[in-house]
């Protein structure tokens, strides 16, 4: 049978209220008593009831994680990082998927805020004003989004684009296409700015094809427009777009990388399984999730808010060269 608080108290030789204090406010209990309670908890394998513990601490022991699309492998990796780190502190994670809809995000934020001690919002599409409003209601940590006054874990998108451009220029490419992601995506905006700056610095012609859904289907839809640019290489907002683009190029008989080099961002698991295997910028998604949990727990347990992370603390990506990028083709004729 599951051990109860009274069982622990009986074995430790103290009152149930003392056990509660030892578990929730250990500084209020002397060292010897805490040690007896700890031994009893271990022997009985006692697990405090979350609801009961919440009455004592004023906390639920739960956090919410909201992502735009849980089917996207990028966000699945973030979820794994969040859950792995949360388990270390016996924190439960409620995961919600907004299906890339800002209006759905706003409703989910407010519904979850009433049930958890804080929220981790990954790549939210909502406005800065809406995010600031929810941060007034509960503890909030952002991943892959920067909003003034809210603690955030961000990737160095500008550096990622510099790496992408340097790789393609070294292969002789001088006319490069860019397929961006959703217009409401903060990271897509920063990647666009980073790629523009890198193209200007290297005197490369950058052709912006437009905004597309961050999905396989988005890549298929973008492919014909990319071909029409007559670029010799293309950088895509994420790997899913790149993989969809590879499929359409194959259907048209366009050889990658002989006719067109393709470079993605994220390094999701299926990138190495694509044909050809996809060159990409690897972003530390699981690490971002782990840091977000550590930061949120700090916000919950410390009376003073942690300062927002500065851009100098942004997590950096790593160029992964596979078979989808190669030397620029020789000019025709």
Summarize, please.
With 333 residues, the chain is of the alpha/beta class.
Radius of gyration: 25 Å
Distance between the termini: 82 Å
Number of helices: 12
Helical residues, percent: 40-55%
String of helices and strands: HHHHEHEHEHEEHEHEHEHEEHE
Note the beta-strand portion: 15-25%
Structural class: alpha/beta
Report mean pLDDT, rounded to a whole number.
90
Largest sheet: 6 strands, mixed
Total beta-strand segments: 11
Query: Spans of 5+ residues with little confidence (pLDDT < 50)?
Result: none
Shape: elongated
Spatial order of the strands forming the largest sheet = 7-6-8-9-10-11
Feature tags:
alpha/beta, 16% strand, 6-stranded mixed β-sheet, 333 residues, 12 helices, single chain, 5-stranded parallel β-sheet, 45% helix
Summarize the topology:
Elements: H1 5-12, H2 16-24, H3 31-44, H4 50-57, E1 62-67, H5 73-88, E2 92-97, H6 102-113, E3 118-122, H7 128-137, E4 139-143, E5 152-153, H8 157-170, E6 175-180, H9 186-201, E7 205-211, H10 216-228, E8 233-236, H11 239-251, E9 261-266, E10 279-282, H12 285-301, E11 318-320
Parallel strand pairs: 1-2, 1-3, 3-4, 4-5, 6-7, 6-8, 8-9, 9-10
Antiparallel strand pairs: 10-11
Helix pairs in contact: 1-2, 1-3, 5-12, 8-9, 10-11
Characterise this structure.
- It is a single chain.
- This protein has 333 residues and is of the alpha/beta class.
- The chain is built from twelve helices and eleven strands.
- The protein has helices spanning 5-12, 16-24, 31-44, 50-57, 73-88, 102-113, 128-137, 157-170, 186-201, 216-228, 239-251, 285-301; strands spanning 62-67, 92-97, 118-122, 139-143, 152-153, 175-180, 205-211, 233-236, 261-266, 279-282, 318-320.
- A six-stranded mixed β-sheet has the order 7-6-8-9-10-11, with helices on both faces.
- Helix 7 (128-137) links the parallel strand 3 (118-122) and strand 4 (139-143).
- The longest helix has 17 residues, at 285-301.
- The protein is elongated.
- The N and C termini lie far apart (82 Å).
- The relative contact order is 0.12.
């Amino acid at each position: 049978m599951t051990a109860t608080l009274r069982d622990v108290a009986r074995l430790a030789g103290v009152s149930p209220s003392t056990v509660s204090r030892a578990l929730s406010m250990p500084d209020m209990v002397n060292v010897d008593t805490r040690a007896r309670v700890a031994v009893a908890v271990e022997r009985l394998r006692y697990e405090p009831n979350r609801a009961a513990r919440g009455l004592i601490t004023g906390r639920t022991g739960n956090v919410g994680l909201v992502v735009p699309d849980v089917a996207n492998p990028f966000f699945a990796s973030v979820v794994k990082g969040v859950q792995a780190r949360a388990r270390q502190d016996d924190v439960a994670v409620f995961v919600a998927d907004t299906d890339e809809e800002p209006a759905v995000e706003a409703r989910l934020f407010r519904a979850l805020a009433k049930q958890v001690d804080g929220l981790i919002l990954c790549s939210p599409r909502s406005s800065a004003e809406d995010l600031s409003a929810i941060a007034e209601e509960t503890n909030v940590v952002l991943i892959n989004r920067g909003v003034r006054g809210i603690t955030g874990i961000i990737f160095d998108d500008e550096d990622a684009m510099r790496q992408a451009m340097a790789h393609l220029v070294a292969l002789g490419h001088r006319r490069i296409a860019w397929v961006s992601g959703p217009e409401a995506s903060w990271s897509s905006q920063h990647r666009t700015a980073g790629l523009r700056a890198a193209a200007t610095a290297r005197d490369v012609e950058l052709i912006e094809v437009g905004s597309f859904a961050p999905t396989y289907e988005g890549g298929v839809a973008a492919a014909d427009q990319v071909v029409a640019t007559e670029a010799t290489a293309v950088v895509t907002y994420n790997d899913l777009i790149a993989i969809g683009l590879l499929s359409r190029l194959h259907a048209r008989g366009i050889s990658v990388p002989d006719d067109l080099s393709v470079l993605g961002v994220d390094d999701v698991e299926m990138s190495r399984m694509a044909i050809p295997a996809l060159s990409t910028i690897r972003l530390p998604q699981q690490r971002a999730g782990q840091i977000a949990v550590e930061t949120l727990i700090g916000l919950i347990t410390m009376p003073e808010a942690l300062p927002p992370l500065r851009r100098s603390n942004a997590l950096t990506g790593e160029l992964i060269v596979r078979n989808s990028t190669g030397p620029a083709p020789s000019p025709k004729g």
